[in-house]
Predict the structure.
Amino acid sequence: MRRLHNGSVRIYRSAIVLIFMLLAGVVQAQITYTRSFTKKLAGAQLSYHTPVESWLHVVPLRSDAFMDYDLVLQNDRNDYEVRYRIRRLNRKWRAVPQHVEVSRLVASIATNEPEAEIRMSFPDDAFVREAFNAESGLFARFKPKPAFSEKPFGTLVSLYGEGKAIVDVVVLYHDPGFDPIEHFRDLRFK
């Protein structure tokens, strides 16, 4: 009789652990960052997934003279911030090449200090397709203007989805060894 009792306790404990694991998965799957951001994702044919271990939380949108955002997430543990902007394509944006748009944006948010540099790169199309399912991308590393962010480093990932949208992801951080391009592959065109 005692063996049955110990076995029942183990089954009960296992069931409790399983229930908590399932609830954590359900809660994660049901997270909606904001209604407007979720709506923009659907309209631009994007899927979005941020791992729970990223410890990101939504920061209320604030007025910014440099850039409009659809979502701002912050990680207090590792001290970085991610700002998202999704722009559905229209005639105006189709007429301006992506590198011109990115150059304008980076010129607006990067510092004007003489020793600061902006490094722009065009990743291989195969990498952009594999990582983001996008037609093209452009990356820019820069030092942000103090009015834009108090963090000393910034990376812009700009992605183009043919007939869908242009997505700009600005990551602001303190650690010079941090590589946002390796960490932020959370948006993918469908």
User: Anything to note?
Assistant: The radius of gyration is 21 Å.
